[in-house]
Design a protein that fits this description.
Elements lengths: L1 E3 L5 H13 L5 E3 L8 H8 L5 H4 L2 E6 H4 L4 H16 L7 E5 L9 H7 L2 H6 L1 E6 L6 H16 L3 E6 L5 H17 L8 E6 L4 H9 L9 H5 L1 H17 L3 E4 L6 H10 L19
Parallel strand pairs: 1-2, 1-8, 2-3, 3-4, 4-5, 5-6, 6-7, 7-8
Length: about 280
């Protein structure tokens, strides 16, 4: 199980990361949600604060939407520089997640991967996003074709599945990923797979009904109640487990009780309580 950070500044990111590690979290994802939150600054803020084994499993997101700078060439070079500088940190992350960002882009993840020099893609593992939940068949096929293009560059080591609730489409998407993996037999390493879930709450469902996230497709059944959403989540997690997909929780976890609920929902060690939380330490 992986958890996402929601802190808005260096101090809150450090405190949140230390709290989640104190709860027993082993993998953290660091979103890139604005031009004012560069992923390298977040990584540097956590160096020396977290233990090396957690730092290796911190996955920074790199959004080309927010990183775009004047031209495709400048943006590509900025990404290459990020890869090199992240790999040079005292404890570098094992991988990053490269996303184009919502809407059409002058320079998207396919173009970025195609133009990235080999030495930079070797410096750090690169994951890419895939949405198996797109309702329209033609758009779904385009999404699969784009993933083939990304993987076909030889730069991709992981695939991160978008949130959604249509379990039939999820099963189809996972089968497609299995076919893609079969086509890559003989590659240096198999693709690592990650799948996102929400931990439903009434507040979250209300927010998704009235202001849904771009690209996140949640059915009326899922949005009807917490019980219905949790039932769908459990079935999605079972599909993930059958395909060796590691789960990423995209809702904030702020207490041992919330983590205990997450572990029960995801069927991780039953209802076993998490380790006692440690008070956040100050920066080194």
């Amino acid at each position: 199980m992986r958890l996402e950070l929601f802190g808005k500044d260096v101090a809150s990111l450090r405190a949140e990361a230390l709290t989640l590690v104190g709860f027993g979290g082993h993998g953290l994802n660091l979103p890139h949600k604005s031009k004012d939150s560069p992923p390298l600054a977040t990584l540097r803020a956590l160096q020396g604060v977290l233990p090396p084994e957690v730092l290796r499993e911190c996955v920074p997101h790199y959004s080309l939407k927010f990183a775009y700078d004047r031209s495709s060439d400048v943006t590509r070079q900025s990404f290459a520089t990020f890869c090199a500088e992240a790999a040079a940190l005292p404890t570098p992350p094992r991988q990053l997640l490269l996303v184009s960002g919502s809407g059409s882009r002058k320079f998207d993840s396919v173009q970025c991967l195609r133009s990235l020099p080999q030495e930079h893609s070797d410096a750090i593992g690169i994951g890419v996003a895939f949405n198996p939940y797109i309702p329209d068949r033609a758009e779904r096929e385009r999404e699969r074709a784009r993933l083939r293009l990304k993987v076909g560059t030889g730069r991709v080591s992981a695939v991160w599945l978008q949130l959604g609730s249509d379990l039939e489409l999820l099963a189809e998407g996972l089968q497609f990923l299995s076919t893609l993996a079969d086509e890559r037999r003989g590659a240096a390493a198999p693709l690592r797979l990650y799948g996102s879930v929400f931990v439903p709450s009434r507040q979250l469902l209300s927010r998704m009904r009235f202001r849904p996230w771009c690209g996140v497709h949640l059915s009326d059944e899922y949005l009807a109640s917490v019980d219905a959403a949790e039932a769908i989540t459990r079935r999605a997690v079972a599909l993930y487990a059958a395909h060796r997909v590691e789960v990423l929780v995209e809702t904030a976890v702020t207490s041992p009780a919330e983590l205990r609920h997450v572990r029960m929902l995801l069927a991780l060690e039953g209802a076993a309580p998490p380790p006692a939380a440690q008070p956040p330490a100050g920066p080194p």
